Amino acid sequence: MSLRLSTVILPYRRWHEGARSAWVRAEQLGFHTAYTYDHLSWRSFRDGPWFGAVPTLTAAAAVTDRLRLGTLVTSPNFRHPVTLAKELISLDDISGGRVTLGIGAGGTGFDATALGQEPWTPRERADRFAEFVPLLDRLLTEDAVSYEGRFYSAHEARNIPGCVQRPRLPFAVAATGPRGLALAARYGQAWVTTGDPKLYESGTPEQSVEALRGQLGKLSEACEAAGRDAAELDKVLLTGFTPDRGRPLESLDAFVDFAGRHRDLGFTEIVIHWPIPDSDFAADEKVFERIAVEALAQLD
């Protein structure tokens, strides 16, 4: 499978003050998918503007025609499968079947306490995720669902007419642990990683490549255990969180080298952040656009 190049457009700008033009430009540049983060607020952006993922993607669907749209990633931190399914079916309909749901177990950031709860432990996040994903799968594929679980319930939840994409919109499951990888193997059409977070501060790019090789190996094992061919899943690398940080966006040659190394590992999609001045995602916009237009041709 040839490598795909996608982008993440963070929802920190008002729609008519730069956000709309970014989504339109992403389609013009030929990105495969443009994602956004599904958070209530996020890290250094917490005290500034930040908009909701689903309304943002709905607006993006209205101003684009070919660009796929998605979340990286939605989590149970503040979502419930019943209400999320209704929003996703609506978004898939409005976009004409162009939505991918990036989904993960969540973390300990601002989303974890925004509803007034104590942060969940890693075990509880895994437990909730293990219940969340199968229920969401049912809600997106069945007309009516009733379910009583430990964390989530549904009572005759109706989701007619279902997704435009059949049997449902694709899941891109973010996971590195055994339980999450098992969910990716069973329910995912793609798998997402940001690399090994322990290497971000003091690791090397070479160590990161080896860590990613190990994650891909564990994904293959999870797929084998689920009776599935790992080649069926897209492998998505969300960049910016490995020891390389922003260096791959410093030049076209730097990106081609980075992308080639990770394609050779087995990744089928690389996601780069839309430049944001004065942030961890600062980058030269001209270089960024050149990468979008020219990089993949150099990797053929």
Q: Quick summary of this structure?
A:
With 300 residues, this protein is α/β, with parallel strands linked by helices. The chain contains eight helices and ten strands.
Account of the protein in words:
The chain is globular. The mean pLDDT is 97. It is of the alpha/beta class. The relative contact order is 0.13. It contains eight helices and ten strands.
Layout of helices and strands:
Layout lengths: L3 E5 L10 H10 L4 E4 L16 H11 L4 E7 L6 H15 L3 E5 L18 H20 L2 E5 L4 E6 L12 E4 L3 H10 L2 E4 L11 H21 L8 E5 L13 H14 L3 E5 L11 H15 L1
Parallel strand pairs: 1-2, 1-10, 2-3, 3-4, 4-7, 7-8, 8-9, 9-10
Antiparallel strand pairs: 5-6
Helix pairs in contact: 2-3, 3-4, 4-5, 5-6, 7-8
Determine the strand fraction and express it as a percent band: 15-25%
Q: How large is the radius of gyration? A: 19 Å
Unreliable residue runs: none
Helix run count: 8
The average pLDDT value, as a whole number, equals: 97
Placed side by side, the strands forming the largest sheet appear as 1-2-3-4-7-8-9-10
In one word, what is the shape?
Answer: globular
Q: Please report the distance between the alpha carbons of the first and last residues.
A: 11 Å
Percent in helix: 25-40%
List keywords for this structure.
300 residues, alpha/beta, 8 helices, 10 strands, globular
